Amino acid sequence: MRLCAWYLYGEKHRGYALNPVANFHLQNGSVLWRINWMGDTSPRGIGASCGMMVNYRYFLEDTASNSALYLGSKQVKASEQVLALVAQFQQNSKL
């Protein structure tokens, strides 16, 4: 889950999220909200994402500012759960 959080939050292509689904939601002003272990146990889900599923949350009053922040300064808004996983990844990573 730590690696998944880092992939969605920290891995970039030209400054934007490497994952196309993450990039879509973040451009539209969402918050990287929650990572669900074994949220998709279908054969396709296991093959594509090791069964993990991600929730993006839209706070309507914040979507315009979140979108502008992401598109302008390439900053990803994320929940405390995701940020904690990212911090754990960074602490334990040799990358």
Automatic annotation (TrEMBL):
InterPro entries: Malonyl_CoA_deC (IPR038917), Malonyl_CoA_deC_C (IPR007956), Malonyl_CoA_deC_C_sf (IPR042303). GO terms for cellular component: mitochondrial matrix; peroxisomal matrix. GO terms for biological process: acetyl-CoA biosynthetic process; fatty acid biosynthetic process; malonyl-CoA catabolic process. It comes from the Eukaryota. GO terms for molecular function: malonyl-CoA decarboxylase activity. Residues 1-58 form the Malonyl-CoA decarboxylase C-terminal domain. PANTHER family: MALONYL-COA DECARBOXYLASE, MITOCHONDRIAL, PTHR28641. This is DCMC protein. The gene is Mlycd.
